[in-house]
Write a structure and sequence with these properties.
Blueprint: H1 5-8, H2 17-28, E1 43-54, E2 57-65, E3 75-81, E4 87-94, E5 105-113, E6 116-123, E7 135-141, E8 147-149, E9 162-174, E10 177-186, E11 191-198, E12 204-209, E13 220-229, E14 232-240, E15 256-261, E16 276-277, E17 285-291, E18 297-303, E19 317-318, E20 320-321, E21 325-330, E22 333-338, E23 349-367, E24 371-380, E25 384-392, E26 395-402, E27 407-411, E28 426-430, E29 436-443, E30 446-451, E31 456-461, E32 470-488
Parallel strand pairs: 1-19
Antiparallel strand pairs: 1-2, 2-3, 3-4, 5-6, 6-7, 7-8, 9-10, 10-11, 11-12, 13-14, 14-15, 15-16, 17-18, 18-20, 18-21, 21-22, 23-32, 24-29, 24-32, 25-26, 25-32, 26-27, 27-28, 29-30, 30-31
The structure holds beta-D-fructofuranose.
Beta-D-fructofuranose (FRU) binds near residues 46, 63, 122, 286 and 306.
Organism: Peribacillus glennii
Keywords: Carbohydrate metabolism, Cytoplasm, Glycosidase, Hydrolase
Enzyme class: hydrolase
């Protein structure tokens, strides 16, 4: 089917129950439905939105186009959870039904204020010439879960000097005031972030641009997020338009962070270090963070990227969210660990211990398609060692450590159905270590690999056959001792 503009901008209530059932059946027939990740019932999921804790629940919304695996008229879909692991379906959160969001309720964030949860998002609109006019809008959720929109948008114009690529407000509170960062594009087509301030969340004032050292760094910065951690300021954003550079910037678009001194608002100068990518895998974009009630900074990302076809498209759905990760700061960098609540998912446990000398070994009974694997390799002389997983016949996904080059590589060349091959089939990063710990979460069609306590993370979709469940360990040119534990999830 050709996704014409008309089809992309159809509302969910224009689809008949039969059409939705039919689409649902198509989705159910997909061999790549996930088992412990948030995924859309039908259609396309993208950015996490409104990630927050309110009234005893974590709330996590996502960008959703219900009618097919394409970007179209976006809704916010609402999930809630007591523990970040077991999510309840709370239905549609925000529908695009007002003058200010009629072409999509785009990304945004949430903050609690006066006992309510304020959802601040971008209303996407297009005029008769299909020119974009973004609004920044407010919807308010009360303790019963009822979400009401304001009659008017709270920011209706783009300040001069910026184009209509102006979206994705992320709010935080500093002292008595609220601030929002918004992703923007300057008129000279470079990306940046602007800051707004408010005392009541309804009246907003343009403060100006956030001053970074990255004057010319891509053409648009999406989904900004600012928070402070251990007295340092962290600015996360997703720049578009960076060229590949060595192992960096290999995906169509990037997501990363700047870390430095805290921003001293209303002074908007940010003194920071280098831009670093948050994730080294193939499918990661537009992450958002929140502060948990016990003070942790938790991040969730979109496990997907725009403008790439995925093998699930033909089954009428696309994408999922990542698992929640706890962030911390170490030596001027962010470290990401799977939140400890994920242990709640652990079922049957098994172990495997092998010392390999220039060989590949499959351990009997040590298999799976949906599991957590924690594997430590501490004693090695091999030039290279690694793990092949979701393997069968000629298929496998490989995570390996090159001890000569001191590099980790994820290889999905032979994973199964192809995805995004025009952007390459391997991803690598440096890791200088005399012990390598692979902590992996494998779902039906994804893998998230945390290396050495979250120093680096590789997040990727993979599309193997259901029967590909083997796990192999190998060492090349020398020895490596593997000590692994696995839990069915
Ligand atoms: C990022 C993004 C945001 C926008 C949303 C629309 O993936 O392009 O900038 O608000 O998706 O779905």
């Amino acid at each position: 089917m050709e996704w014409t503009r008309e089809k992309r901008y159809r509302r969910l209530d224009e689809a008949s129950p039969e059409e939705m059932q039919q689409l649902g059946r198509q989705v159910d027939a997909c061999p790549w439905r996930q088992t412990f990740h948030i995924q859309p019932r039908t259609g396309l999921l993208n950015d996490p939105n409104g990630f927050s804790y309110y009234n005893g629940y974590y709330h996590l919304f996502y960008q959703w186009f219900p009618l097919g695996p394409v970007h179209g008229l976006k809704y916010w879909y609402h999930m809630k959870s007591k523990d970040l692991v077991n999510w309840e379906d709370a239905g549609i959160g925000i529908e695009p039904d007002r003058y200010y969001d009629r072409h999509g309720a785009y990304s945004g964030s949430a903050i609690e204020y006066e006992d309510k949860l304020f959802l601040f998002y971008t209303g996407n609109t297009r005029d008769e010439n299909w020119i974009r006019h973004p609004y920044q809008c407010l919807a308010v959720m009360d303790k019963t879960g009822c979400i009401k929109k304001l009659e008017e948008a709270v920011i209706s114009t783009v300040p001069s000097g910026y184009t209509d690529h102006f979206r994705d407000p992320k709010i935080w509170k500093q002292g008595e005031l609220f601030y929002a960062v918004i992703g923007a594009q300057r008129e000279n087509e470079t990306g940046c972030i602007v800051v707004y301030g408010s005392s009541n969340l309804t009246d907003w004032e343009f403060e100006g641009e956030l001053e970074t050292k990255l004057e010319n760094f891509g053409y648009m910065w999406e989904c900004p997020d600012y928070f402070e951690m251990d007295g340092q300021g962290v600015l996360i954003f997703s720049p578009q338009g960076l060229q590949p550079l060595g192992d960096e910037y290999q995906n169509i678009y990037q997501s990363g962070y700047l870390m430095g001194g805290s921003i001293n608002l209303p002074d908007r100068n940010f003194d920071h270090g280098d831009f670093r990518e948050l994730d080294r895998g193939f499918d990661f974009y537009a992450p958002q963070t929140m502060a948990s009630p016990d003070g942790r900074r938790i991040l969730v990302g979109w496990m997907g990227l725009p403008e790439i076809d995925y093998p699930t498209d033909k089954n009428g759905w696309a994408h999922c969210l990542t698992l929640p990760r706890e962030l911390s700061a170490k030596n001027g960098r962010l470290v990401q660990k799977p939140v400890k609540e994920l242990e709640l998912l652990r079922k049957q446990e098994s172990t495997a211990k092998v010392v390999l000398d220039n060989e590949l070994q499959r351990i009997d009974g040590f298999t799976g398609t949906n599991y957590e694997l924690l594997c430590e390799v501490s004693d090695f002389s091999a030039d290279e060692f690694g793990i092949e997983f979701r393997a069968c016949g000629g298929f496998k996904t490989v995570i390996k450590y090159d001890a000569v080059e001191k590099k980790v590589t994820l290889d999905r060349s032979d994973s199964g159905a192809e995805v995004g091959v025009e952007y390459g089939t391997t991803r690598s990063c440096n890791l200088n270590a005399d012990k390598v710990v692979f902590h992996m979460f494998v779902d039906t069609s994804s893998v998230e690999i945390f290396l050495n306590e979250g120093e680096e993370v590789f997040t990727s979709r993979i599309f193997p056959d259901a029967g590909c469940d083997q796990i192999h360990f190998y060492a090349k040119n020398g020895r490596a001792a593997f000590n692994a534990k696995k839990w069915e999830l």
